[in-house]
Amino acid sequence: MPKLKTRRAAAKRFRVTGSGKFMRRRAFHNHLLDHKSPKRKRYLGTMAVVDERDHDRVSHMLPYAG
After folding, report:
1. By the 8 A CB rule, do 6 and 14 touch?
2. Which partner from 5, 18, 42, 52 sits 20 to 30 angstroms from 66, CA to CA?
3. Position 2 in a domain
4. How far apart (Å, rounded) are the C-alpha atoms in residues 25 and 13?
5. Taking residues 38-63, what's their average pLDDT?
6. In this structure, is residue 1 part of a structural domain?
7. Which domain holds residue 41?
8. Smallest Cα–Cα separation from 10: which of 58, 56, 52?
9. Per-residue pLDDT band at 59 (split at 50, 70, 90)
10. What is the pLDDT of residues 1-48, one digit of tens each?
């Protein structure tokens, strides 16, 4: 069987934890930040876990990620 190709766009957007979960960045932390509170901006800067319903989709895009 040939090697599977990794979707490069997904490889740049997701990271795998030690337990095999996928982490992603949060939205709304790119621009238009003046009116957002510092607390909200700190929260948006943290990583989030990909929902379990999307786990299979992400794992197909990243065949060698854990």
Report:
1. no
2. 42
3. no
4. 7
5. 98
6. no
7. 8-61
8. 58
9. very high
10. 999 999 999 999 999 999 999 999 999 999 999 999 999 999 999 999
Residue type, 40: R
Whether 36 is covered by a domain: the verdict is yes
Closest CA to 45 of 21, 26, 24, 22: 26
**Length, in residues, of the chain:** 66
Label residue 66 by pLDDT band (50, 70, 90): confident
Please check whether residue 53 lies inside any domain of the structure. yes
Asked if 14 contacts 23 with a C-beta cutoff of 8 angstroms, the reply is yes
- CA 37, 24, 14, 7 dihedral sign is negative
Give me the CATH number covering residue 32. Answer: 4.10.410.60
DSSP3 helix / strand / coil % (the chain, rounded to 5): 30, 10, 60
pTM for the structure as a whole = 0.88
